[in-house]
Amino acid sequence: MEKSWVLKAQGDSVITKELSQSLGIDMSLTNLLVQRGITTVEGAKTFFRPSFSDLHDPFLMKDMDRAVARITKAVSNHEKILVYGDYDVDGTSAVALVYTFLQSFYPDVDFYIPDRYDEGYGISVKGIDFAFDAGISLVIALDCGIKAVEKVAYAGSKGIDFIICDHHRPGAELPPASAILDPKRSDCLYPYKELSGCGIGFKLIQAYAQVHCIEFEKLIQYLDLVVIAIASDIVDITGENRVLAFYGLKLINTKPRPGLEALLRYSSVLKNDDGSGRYVFNRELTITDLVFMIGPRINAAGRIESGKNSVRLLITQDPGEANLLAEQINAYNTERKTLDSLATQQAMAMIEADERLRNARSTVIYHPEWHKGVIGIVASRLTENFYRPTVVLTLSNGLITGSARSVRDFDIYEAVDACSDLLEHFGGHKFAAGLSLQPCNLEAFSQRFEATVSSRLEGIELVPVLEIDAPLSLNAINSRFYAVLKQFAPFGPGNMAPVFITRGVMDAGGSRIVGKNHLKLSVVHPEIAGGPFSAIAFQQGEHFNLIEKQIPFNICYHVEENEWNGSVNLQLNIKDIKFAG
Ligand SMILES: [Mn+2]
Q1: In the predicted model, is pLDDT for residue 74 greater than 70?
Q2: Ligand 1 mean position, distance from CA 263 (Å)
Q3: How confident is the model over 559-571, as a mean pLDDT?
Q4: Rg (CA), the chain
Q5: Torsion 121-125-130-136 (CA) sign
Q6: By Cβ atoms counted within 10 A, which residue in 75, 125, 244, 451 is the most buried?
Q7: Does 490 sit behind a cis peptide bond, omega within 30 degrees of 0 on the bond before it?
Q8: Which parts of 96-142 are beta strand (E)?
Q9: Per-residue pLDDT for 225 more than 80?
Q10: Neighbours of ion ligand 1 (CB under 5 A)
């Protein structure tokens, strides 16, 4: 689908000029700061030098005092504690974090991950019964629980207290828990709202450590878990998340825990070539690497078998055990890939064959045999392809259960909420939601969802948008420029890697197609000296004919480093090409 190019609002020119002079960096880089809301020298310093001193006081979070007091009481009364979490990356890394922290000074802790198929998302009756049978009187729930009003009440009737650490939107009623940590509570004044579930777990241990005089330095070892959750849950990498992600990445790059190192062996960035028998990275890992290399593998455990294996992988200190678990988890991931590509192909064929579905404003598609573990992935792929709000459904334990994914600016949670009377359960965010319904309501749901989407999108044409940060002249790109640009990382939602636009570039000769339809380009600009600049455009071979004919073209690109044969050069990573005129 052709993308529409949208240039973001440029920073105020007076502010940009002043800040550029005070910082001594060029206008185009300063503009990127101003676009990100950074308008002072002090603000730039905080941005470029993330510091633990910029983390907020955990006690600003509503109920934090109650949560810490309840854990303190459990520890002094020798109560058994259960750390309970969702089966995805955020949930399992949160469980690994809180469980390992508590276990470092208190032995009576266990952890629990519900089975995706048997128990489903969130707090389960089975989990509470397990806790009861094990004599547990305190459950700390992570990345789930904010809507578990009845389940928490049921636990209460069995003498089990709950501390809920969640980052999903609360419903109208809060569960009767001992403490509810969730910055999205309307009565929570915590200054940063975008923490991951694992991030809330980190704030909990930070608060506990503060009260019990445990040095902050002892908590840094957990930040690798926080950053994999930030990356995989696709939360904003702004504010406090930027600090946590920055130090988390640093930790993964220097001293990954055994489980992460073992998993990374299955990716191309880790190689065993320094002669010491140790694995080394062949480049610095980024958030994108975590999204593509770590996230899917850890998720695969929960999708195919059990999220408990992910937690085991993340908590083990034994490299042998880590290798065994990583091998198993990697095999789940291979199986997951097969299941998801089969279901995706089937779904695409079903849409193509159905005229009503083809012309709808939304996709609602159901197949009883799709694996429940991959419907979210299938929904994402369909969204990329048809670019409209999408719900993919399958049958599980007699209920129809589904994953919803959205497109830019469309709040899918609200659209699902508009069908809530037809649903058994639902929950989620603006861009993704989960739901379940009785099979008899499927037809009514499909119709209502489509009606809701089409009325909200009336007169709006959905097209994928490529957001461009700023125009750039090719001769601005040099090693000094890149040295500053690099410090904008870690990139992610809220601070995406800048996309630049240069109009009217031309082939400098030597451009060619490489690999599977990629373009390896060498470009110049007729009006500037310097160059040629080397560039790569993945999956864009179709433009080669016109480029070769010396027709000028416009490019949108990232500036990045490319290492080849031991030498490092700057290259333009071209996201999209359009011919002038
Ligand atoms: Mn989460």
Answers
A1: yes
A2: 21
A3: 86
A4: 25
A5: positive
A6: 244
A7: yes
A8: 109-112, 136-142
A9: yes
A10: 90, 143, 197, 233
Token pair in block for residue 15: 């502010």
* Length of the chain (residues): 581
Backbone angles phi, psi at 3, to 5 degrees: -90, 145
Interval between CA 111 and ligand 1 midpoint (Å) = 17
Tell me what the mean pLDDT of segment 138-155 comes to. 97
> What pLDDT is attached to residue 542?
94
- pTM equals 0.88
From 151-155, 466-470, 492-496, 564-568, the region with the lowest mean pLDDT: 564-568
In the numeric block, which tokens belong to residue 271?
């190689």
Residues 336 and 373: beta-carbon distance below 8 Å:
yes
Q: Which residues contact 141 (CB under 8 A, 6 or more apart)?
A: 84, 85, 123, 148, 162, 163, 164, 165, 166
Contact 145, 175 (CB under 8 A): yes
- Ligand 1 centroid–CA 188 distance in Å is 18
pLDDT at 413: 94
**Ligand 1 center–CA 226 separation, angstroms:** 11
Q: Prior bond to 552 cis, omega within 30?
A: no
Could you tell me if 65 and 188 are in contact, meaning their C-beta atoms sit under 8 angstroms apart?
Answer: no
Region of residue 109 (left: phi > 0; alpha: psi -120 to 50; beta: else): beta
Is the pLDDT assigned to residue 270 strictly greater than 80? no
Domains and CATH numbers, the chain: 4-9+466-579 (2.40.50.460), 58-246 (3.90.1640.30), 256-353 (3.90.1640.30), 355-456 (3.10.310.30)
Tokens standing for 483? Answer: 């040295």
CA of 299 to the centre of ligand 1 (A): 12
The Å distance, Cα 248 to ligand 1 centre, comes to: 17
* CA–CA separation, 403 and 375 (whole Å): 6
The C-alpha atoms of residue 10 and residue 208 are separated, in whole angstroms, by 43
Ligand 1 center–CA 215 separation, angstroms? 27
pLDDT higher than 80, residue 120: no
* 223, 350, 390, 395, 438 from 367: Cα distances, Å: 40, 10, 14, 7, 14
What mean pLDDT do residues 495-503 have? Answer: 96
Distance between Cα 91 and ligand 1 center (Å): 6
Q: How far apart are CA 62 and CA 60, in angstroms?
A: 6
- The candidate with the shortest Cα–Cα distance to 314, out of 114, 85, 106, is 85
Distance CA 130, CA 127 (A): 5
Ligand 1 centre distance from Cα of residue 167 (Å): 7
Q: What are phi and psi of 391, to 5 degrees?
A: -125, 125
Q: Which two tokens stand for residue 554?
A: 């416009």
- Provide the pLDDT for residue 160: 98
CB of 329 within 8 A of CB of 265?
no
Query: What's the half-sphere exposure (Cβ side, CA atoms, 13 Å) at 90?
Result: 23
Alpha carbons 553 and 130: distance in angstroms, whole number: 63
Nearest CA among 455, 491, 447 for reference residue 234: 491
DSSP characters for 218-252? GGGGGHHHHHHHHHHTT---SHHHHHHHHHHHHHH
